[in-house]
Each structure stands twice: as C-alpha cells, then as structure tokens.
Amino acid sequence: MPSSEAVSLGAQLDEDHSPETNGWMPVCRRCGAYTESTVGCHHVPNERRLARAQEWLETYSDVRRHSRTRAI
User: Fold this and answer.
1) CA distance 8 to 33
2) 26 near 34, Cβ under 8 Å?
C-alpha cells in the first residue's frame, strides 16, 4: 500500500503528464516513476524513489515556466 506522500506525488505527476510506458514495464518513460500497470494510467512512485520523482517534477516545472517566459 503506497503512503499518502506517494499517492499525492503520483497525482501531481498525473496532472503534469500522462504516464508513457513501453507496454511491458510499469515505468513512465518520461519521468521514470512507476505506474500502476504496464498500460500506465496513473503514476504510483516507489517509496524509495520519492525524492527523485519530486526533483523531476520541480525541475521540469521550472523548465516549462522558463520556456513560456521566453515565448512571450
């Protein structure tokens, strides 16, 4: 059973992007977080890798914010 922190982070990743899997591994190709199945409908980050998933989310949020600022 995932912790509330993992569930919350998974929801944030889902809001950011839809999971992209290769169809045989339950890992998102975009962020590296685990998904609930090989179909990849929702992110379910591994407890041991929560810090990495959080770092990815923060980094790519900053990148998108900067690219929007340049586009204006």
Assistant:
1) 13
2) yes
